[in-house]
């Protein structure tokens, strides 16, 4: 059996990590008190067996044995903390697809509108874009199956499939006299977790939406593209936008942090036993050439995002700007349960920033707080309650737990106060004592 470690946010698309840890068999010698504890545990398991058999025999309707067992397992795990759970085989497969960042599909970003699938955007150089699918197209049929009545997830699952297989889309397009029929051949679709651009003619902007297996490679390519467009002193610095990034893979958080650091600790993870403590350090050097960096966070920045922000903040490598992050400071291990049995997602450790801070139920506090102007009709929906508000969350530092933080990002960039503040600081238009960060206060390397 292999274990896989990931940092995940409850409710977010998550998955298993690249870091594999073999579970070795252990020989355990029990003392008398331990034997008594084991005996008591077996009594409780016998109680569970008795209840299970009584439900199977006497419940008003014949229950599904598999569902009974799955619900019992989930009951055990969800009462530990909000991030431990059982994944049935389908959920486990979906998680693996999500964290690989690639799958067999068509390359369309879609949403649901009036019971139909609406195309938000075809992704460049994919079967959808090559076949002529356009933004705002309405998909009414998938092969011979009506879309009406399907959920968005069900429709997406039908559009995904093995590479080189075909699917026929029936599309309603504004201005067309009749529905269009397009036959597409599925191909490998790679999710782009990193998008980069040059702001003005002097700032490299890096937007990171999740930490999957493609993230670090996307970051490296993005930095190289920015450097090719803004050589030498023309590049004032970088904005790393982690707002509303729910996290993902631990190893990707480490390698992303390392891309901005020459050396030093990035994060440590500490489990129940002291010997399980692990420390992860930067190697390979700063890919940006030591240009100034500002990291944007908000209430939706969680887990792996908080590791990156915390590492760069502690090393005084970047100024963190925005609103306090979510506060998910725990590590989940993905443990496959054998062929066809799904997997166990179990919280196994807390993580700590290089200076030894746990952000559990507290979050990363920005060096420069910038709150957005929120439209009246959205004010009730623009804050996240944070880890500390989740029922059964792991406790943070006593007296330091924090709940609630702004997570609103304006749709129109001209209204984005945090982004404009970051660019003004990099250009020297505005001045703040937190930028650039003081190297004298940095932690030992």
Automatic annotation (TrEMBL):
GO terms for biological process: proteolysis; signal transduction. Residues 92-160 form the PDZ domain. One of its GO terms (cellular component) is outer membrane-bounded periplasmic space. InterPro entries: ClpP/crotonase-like_dom_sf, CtpA/B_N, PDZ, PDZ_sf, Peptidase_S41A, Tail-specific_protease. Belongs to the peptidase S41A family. GO terms for molecular function: endopeptidase activity; serine-type peptidase activity. CDD domains: cpPDZ_CPP-like, Peptidase_S41_CPP. Keywords: Hydrolase, Protease, Serine protease. This is S41 family peptidase. The keyword Metal-binding does not apply. Residues 376-390 have a biased composition (Basic and acidic residues). Residues 373-416 are annotated as: Disordered. The keyword Protease applies.
């Amino acid at each position: 059996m292999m274990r896989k470690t990931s940092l995940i946010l409850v409710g977010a698309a998550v998955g298993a990590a690249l870091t594999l840890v073999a579970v070795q068999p252990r020989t355990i010698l029990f003392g008398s008190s331990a034997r008594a504890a084991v005996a008591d545990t077996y009594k409780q398991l016998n109680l569970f067996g008795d209840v299970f058999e009584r439900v199977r025999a006497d419940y008003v309707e014949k229950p599904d044995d598999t569902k009974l067992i799955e619900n019992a397992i989930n009951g055990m795990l969800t009462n530990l903390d909000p991030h431990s759970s059982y994944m049935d085989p389908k959920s486990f497969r979906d998680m693996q697809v999500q964290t690989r960042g690639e799958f067999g599909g068509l390359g369309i970003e879609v949403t649901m509108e009036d019971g139909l699938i609406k195309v938000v955007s075809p992704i460049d150089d994919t079967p959808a874009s090559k076949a002529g699918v356009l933004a705002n197209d309405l998909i009414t049929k998938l092969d011979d199956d009506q879309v009406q009545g399907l959920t968005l997830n069900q429709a997406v699952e039908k559009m995904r499939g093995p590479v080189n297989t075909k699917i026929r889309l029936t599309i309603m397009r504004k201005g067309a006299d009749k529905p269009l029929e397009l036959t597409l051949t599925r191909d490998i679709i790679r999710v782009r977790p990193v998008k980069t651009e040059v702001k003005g003619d002097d700032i490299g902007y890096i937007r990171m939406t999740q930490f999957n297996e493609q993230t670090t490679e996307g970051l490296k390519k993005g930095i190289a593209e920015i450097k090719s467009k803004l050589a030498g002193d023309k590049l004032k610095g970088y904005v790393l936008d982690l707002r509303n990034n729910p996290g993902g893979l631990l190893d990707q958080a480490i390698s992303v942090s390392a891309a901005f650091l020459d050396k030093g600790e990035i994060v440590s993870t500490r489990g129940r036993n002291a010997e399980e403590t692990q420390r992860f350090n930067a190697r390979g050097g700063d890919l940006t050439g030591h240009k100034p960096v500002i990291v944007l966070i908000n209430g939706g920045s969680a887990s792996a995002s908080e590791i990156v922000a915390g590492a760069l903040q502690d090393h005084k490598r970047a100024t963190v700007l925005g609103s306090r992050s979510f506060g998910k400071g725990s590590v989940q291990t993905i443990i496959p349960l054998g062929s066809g049995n799904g997997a166990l997602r179990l919280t196994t450790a807390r993580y700590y920033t290089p200076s030894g801070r746990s952000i559990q139920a507290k979050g990363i506090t920005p060096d420069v707080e910038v709150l957005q102007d929120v439209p009246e009709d959205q004010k009730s929906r623009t804050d996240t309650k944070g880890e500390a508000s989740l029922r059964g969350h792991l406790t943070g530092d006593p007296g330091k737990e924090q709940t609630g933080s702004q997570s609103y990002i304006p749709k129109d960039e001209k209204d984005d106060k945090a982004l404009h503040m970051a660019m003004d600081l990099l250009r020297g238009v505005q001045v703040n004592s937190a930028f650039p960060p003081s190297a004298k206060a940095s932690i030992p390397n």
